[in-house]
Amino acid sequence: MTHQRKRILLVSNTGQVGAELWRSLQSLGDVITVDRDHPTYPVDLADHSQLRHAVRDVAPDIIVNAAAYTAVDNAEQDEALAMAINGTAPGILAEEAKALDALLVHYSTDYVYNGKHVDKPYVETDFCDPRSVYGKTKLAGDEAIQGIGCKHLIFRTSWVYGRYGNNFLLTMLRLGQERSELSIVADQIGAPTWSRLISDATTQVLVQLQSALCPHSIEDLSGIYHLTCGGQTSWCDFAKAIVSHLPNPPSVFPIRTEEYPAPAPRPAYSVLSNDKLAETFGVRLPDWDVALDVCLSREQAKSIFR
């Protein structure tokens, strides 16, 4: 007996996570992408009728939403657009997924928490209290999906970096080659997470869900899961680890959050517990520093430093 290949709708394959998902999801089925500049399925996430039409046209078995409004500081002045993309669009995807009996995979953020935990990683059932517009709009998306009740997996991740898009890793590599000194915030604590590991973990989970050996239904396993690398660090120490891979690394000095004012407040502590993901699916990512070393290994670095 041959298994029919799944139709997978990937919403945006151009960002940090989406570009990696485009690679990793190929083993699971036929991947169709939609994005603002897509030649066949141009979709503006803020145009909700356009989004509905694209989903209905593709009629996927799985929807993977890797799109988001991620400009955290800009969101403070652009709340309507951030809410349309982060809050309303995921709910529309959930409605369409429910109508199709499809599974929706969605990515959320550590910014849904207020950061007041001290050395106590957040678990999925902890109270959400976002301090920024970005965090509030992402939480709205999470709640919309849960309220609609489609089959869903919401992966909350943190401090995402990778070889694509705009992120802290690429910024530090660029600045590290331009400057002899860097001043980086040292009093915000989290877990940097490589986008490639997020995509690979997602694919591992989907493989399990499609297996005849899976003892639970997708409905029973639907919910929120934290998905980050292990360990914790500050932005300052993360920067030091990054630039140490440069031929002539700059000096990195710690500063306090108030010395680097930004429009959007950040959680002071946003380490997430990944125990639920490990206990449910047997998936646990390596510690952040191990992942970074692999990301910046000689072969990886060839394209990053080019």
Q: Percent of residues in helical segments?
A: 25-40%
Apparent shape: globular
The tally of structural domains comes to 1
The main pleated sheet reads as:
6 strands, parallel
CATH class equals Alpha Beta
SSE pattern, N- to C-terminal: EHEHEHEHEEHEEEHHEEHEHHH
Low-confidence stretches: none
CATH superfamily: NAD(P)-binding Rossmann-like Domain
**Looking at CATH, which topology would you report?**
Rossmann fold
The CATH architecture = 3-Layer(aba) Sandwich
Catalytic activity: dTDP-beta-L-rhamnose + NADP(+) = dTDP-4-dehydro-beta-L-rhamnose + NADPH + H(+)
InterPro entries: dTDP_dehydrorham_reduct, NAD(P)-bd_dom_sf, RmlD-like-bd
Enzyme class: oxidoreductase
Cofactor: Mg(2+)
What does this structure look like?
- The chain is of the alpha/beta class and 306 residues long.
- Helix 1 (16-24) crosses helix 6 and helix 2 (48-58) packs parallel to helix 3 (79-100).
- It has a six-stranded parallel sheet with strand order 2-1-3-4-5-10, sandwiched between helices. A two-stranded parallel sheet has the order 6-9.
- It contains eleven helices and twelve strands.
- Strand 1, helix 1 and strand 2 form a beta-alpha-beta unit.
- The protein has a single domain (6-167, 192-229, 271-286), classed as Rossmann fold (3-Layer(aba) Sandwich), CATH 3.40.50.
Topology readout:
Elements: E1 6-11, H1 16-24, E2 29-34, H2 48-58, E3 62-65, H3 79-100, E4 103-109, H4 133-148, E5 151-157, E6 160-161, H5 168-178, E7 181-185, E8 189-190, E9 193-194, H6 195-210, H7 218-221, E10 223-226, E11 233-234, H8 235-243, E12 251-255, H9 275-281, H10 288-295, H11 298-304
Helix pairs in contact: 1-6, 2-3, 3-4
